[in-house]
Design goal:
Rossmann fold; 217 residues; 6-stranded parallel β-sheet; 2 domains; 6 strands; single chain; alpha/beta
């Protein structure tokens, strides 16, 4: 029986559209160019930073982020805030929690994302980031941390994310149940792949999770 539902962050709870728009402006290209390059990387299973390298050969992410912070110390830059939440997040998480499930947020995020997520006062029992843990998806250690903070056996956990490579497949390998969310470029692309059948459910929004939980229960 599922007792805990754990959510990825980017393109699961948080829309990254504004972040990519700001990156396009920073790189001096149109949103269309950057979004197209990102979509290409997603389709080719290449890291998203390869899109930046395509647009600006020799791109150094760390140096650029530092320069951006100096230029716009008070701007959001590549951060997010409550305005970036997908509209179904609060109600869906609240409904899942009200149904008696533990709700946890844990994704590949820098440590600073912890404060941003906590400030949103979401209906979740705890919030965690990969940098805070010192281990990232798809490493098995990340999912061991998920089980540890939940205090559950892996089979009692449903992990929800938008990617096969970072979410569904490694969570399933760790013994968890999984839901693939058709949201964001990776979500739509990955839902069409044969490997998507490894997920216990493929959903179009977070409200669809309660029926999935009832079925798995």
């Amino acid at each position: 029986m599922i007792k805990a539902v754990v959510f990825d962050v980017g393109e699961t709870l948080i829309s990254e559209a504004r972040i990519w728009t700001r990156w396009a402006a920073r790189l001096g290209v149109s949103e269309f160019v950057l979004m197209g390059a990102l979509g290409g990387m997603a389709a080719l299973d290449r890291p998203h930073l390869d899109a930046f390298e395509l647009i600006r050969p020799g791109f150094d992410a760390g140096a650029e982020e530092a320069a951006w912070e100096r230029d716009e110390p008070d701007g959001l830059r590549n951060h997010f805030d409550a305005d970036d939440l997908y509209p179904d997040v609060r109600d869906a998480l609240a409904a899942i929690r009200a149904a008696g499930y533990q709700v946890i947020i844990a994704g590949n995020q820098p440590a600073r994302a912890y404060g941003a997520l906590v400030a949103m006062d979401l209906p979740a029992d705890s919030v965690h980031t990969s940098e805070g843990w010192g281990v990232s998806k798809p490493e098995s250690g990340f999912f061991a941390k998920v089980a540890a903070v939940a205090g559950r056996e892996p089979g009692e956990i449903l992990y929800v994310g938008d990617r096969l490579d970072n979410d569904v497949l490694p969570a399933a390998a760790a013994g968890m149940r999984t839901a693939l969310l058709r949201r964001g470029p990776w979500g739509y692309l990955h839902a069409e792949r044969p490997q998507a059948q490894a997920a216990d459910a493929i959903v179009d929004d977070l409200h669809a999770l309660l029926p999935v939980l009832e079925r798995l229960g």
